[in-house]
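Extended Data, panel c. Modelled sequence:
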Amino acid sequence: MQQFQYLKPKTLDETLESIDKYRKDARILAGGTDVIVALKGNVIHCKYLIDIKEIKELKGISYSDEIGLSIGAAVSLNDIIESDKVKPSQQILVNAAKTLANVLIRNRATLVGNICNSSPGGDMLPASLLLEGRVCVASVDGNREIKLKDFFIGVKKNVLKENEIVTKVIYPPIQGQGIFIKKSRIKGHDLSQISVAGYLKEDGSLKFSLGAAAPTPILVDDFENYKNKQIAEHREIIADKVMSKINPIADVRATKEYRLAMARYLTCEIAKKLGEGK
């Protein structure tokens, strides 16, 4: 593995100073399930690896009726799965987390790491988009918030600046039901061939999000209102709109044709289940 200097700042301010100083030569270590693999494979390079796992400001999970669900950058997926802060209307986030790899990796992997890796097939991204998540970003220049629907700009690319770090994700209070389905070649530690998520809000708003179906995770939210309509009866129309938004590729995990077929099938299945209230 390539040589780098390991840094373990004690505070967020120290972290921001290091990132600002080293910029493109630095990488963040939270869970490490993506960055360590990429460093070993020489997919990415860095001179400084900055470990944030033990920074207190980044380790919390909280919920309030005003803000919603807040999840820090150092929070593992198992922490999310086991937390009583996640409300029933946000259960889709837990369901997605349970599909990622296995329990040992979920002890390390973080939600924020999955988001910042920005893979089109990231397991946590469709649910996060449906739950209207936004990331809180910090640097020595100040803080800002970015809606996740504006965050991803390409394959493993996002809008973060060289000296910025995501400190937490916030999901606003939301009422409704979500369903997430992931297809992969094998159970356990395998990236998705395709993933589809749907969410029906109590006000009748319908949204779908797909992973591994385009260069970025896809959000489709321009459906008609289904407050007083039968979603199941309209599932083919819903699927037609979803299909018009995606452009999957063929790779070692699946053919383009398989992804297209499964995207339609899973969209119809989720629409049917949402219509039945399951």
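Residues 256-276 form the longest helix (21 residues). This feature is highlighted in the accompanying rendering.
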